[in-house]
Amino acid sequence: MQNGERPRAHAVYPGSFDPPTNGHLDVIVRAATIFPLVTVGVVVNPQKRNPFFTIDERDTMLRRITADYPNVRVAHFRGLLADFVRECKADVIVKGLRVVSDFESEMAFAHMNRALSNVDTMFLMADSAYSFVSSSLIKEVFQQGGDVSKYVPATVLELMATKRHAHGRK
Ligand code: PNS
Fold it and tell me: pLDDT tens-digit profile of 80-114?
């Protein structure tokens, strides 16, 4: 690299995104201002038996909410994140940290992913407005009829409502 030249880093932001929240979107947008290319990697996780959204739905929602960011792309993967990162030829993994307790498990993941792929993990602090927002909490509140409109993008809320309607609840 020449003096003054910026490295062209490709970042992978992995997650379940069931559903994507405003907290996720905030991290994606901030990562997209730092890295020339951000791949949002949706994990196909057979261990999570009852996902609310299918992989295709999550893919569609993520594509819609990131449509204004040409350097963000969406992909999905099975198996190890370390293998996906290598396949993408990514330079860095990005994760969001909401609270200190997130760090404990994330530190172990970061060490393991680096050992497996030689790729480092960089952390962005979640915006304090979303420090308590998680996909599982959003689903729980929504399914009990609570208002989650502040915490998910409008596109996501629409699809959640459509799915609830299809399952016979108002
Ligand atoms: O949004 P989530 O569910 O917190 O995301 C978790 C994710 C997808 C980042 C994590 O489950 C993952 O990396 N899964 C892929 C399997 C893997 O690589 N496991 C070993 C991690 S060191």
Answer: 999 999 999 999 999 999 999 999 999 999 999 99
CA of 14 to the centre of ligand 1 (A): 7
Is-contact 76 34, C-beta < 8 A? no
Q: Look at the block and give the residue holding tokens 């609270």.
A: 99
Helix crossing, 100-117 with 81-88: angle to 10°? 60
**Strands 92-97, 120-125: pairing kind:** parallel
pLDDT surpassing 70 at residue 156: yes
pLDDT per position as a tens digit, 119-139: 999 999 999 999 999 999 999
Q: What are phi and psi of 76, to 5 degrees?
A: -125, 160
Q: What is the CA radius of gyration of the chain?
A: 16
Are the C-beta atoms of residues 97 and 13 closer than 8 Å to each other?
A: no
Q: Which atom of ligand 1 is nearest to the CA of 109?
A: 22
Which residues form the pocket of ligand 1, taking CB atoms under 6 Å from any ligand atom?
Answer: 14-16, 43, 80-82, 109, 112-113
Asked if 153 and 67 touch (Cβ cutoff 8 Å), the reply is: no
Instruction: Kindly tell me if the per-residue pLDDT of 51 is higher than 60.
Output: yes
Residue 50's contacts (CB-CB under 8 Å, 6 or more residues apart) are: none
Q: Left if phi > 0, otherwise alpha if psi is -120 to 50, otherwise beta: which for 30?
A: alpha
